[in-house]
């Protein structure tokens, strides 16, 4: 009978250990989940700050000028929006996929993708404009209307494209900012 009692005590001890491990595991999962949620919310807050500061800086430097640009005008602007400005996004992009709200995820990626494309268009436009300015300097006294008109048309096309991209970016920025402001934890 002593062995039976020992077996029963051993089984209860084993059952207690199993229950203890189970509840410890569940508790640790909840802590990990809360930590992950906290981390995602911190990233969302940082993204909100990053896009707000970047957008304000862009508007101060060229956004309004570009928005009000006339058909035949060409703007000279440099270093307005650089993809290196997106430190939060670039260093935490792997966490974006863990955001539960698919619309928010999509709009974050859309904003940064449009911003990087816009930045690249500005860089390319600046290169063309610099080549044009060099050409004008070298051929100042010569009759250069054909090449001059070609460059002007080319740059004018880029300015139109930049205006379209600006409008897309502005709509996406406003939408993303609203989504972030209305996010439950922000």
H/E element sequence: HHHH
Shape: rod-shaped
Major sheet, described briefly?
A: none
Number of strands: 0
Taking pLDDT < 50 over at least 5 consecutive residues as the criterion, the unreliable ranges are none
Helix content: over 70%
Q: Estimate the strand proportion.
A: under 5%
Determine Rg (CA atoms, Å).
Answer: 29 Å
Helix and strand composition category: mainly alpha
Q: What is the terminal-to-terminal distance?
A: 64 Å
Number of domains: 1
Residue-averaged pLDDT, rounded? 81
Count of runs of 4 or more consecutive helical residues = 4
Q: What does it look like?
A:
This protein is mostly helical. It has one domain. Helices cover 81% and strands 0% of the residues. It is built from 4 helices and no strands. The chain has helices spanning 2-67, 87-96, 102-138, 145-181. Helix 1 (2-67) runs antiparallel to helix 4 and helix 3 (102-138) runs antiparallel to helix 4 (145-181).
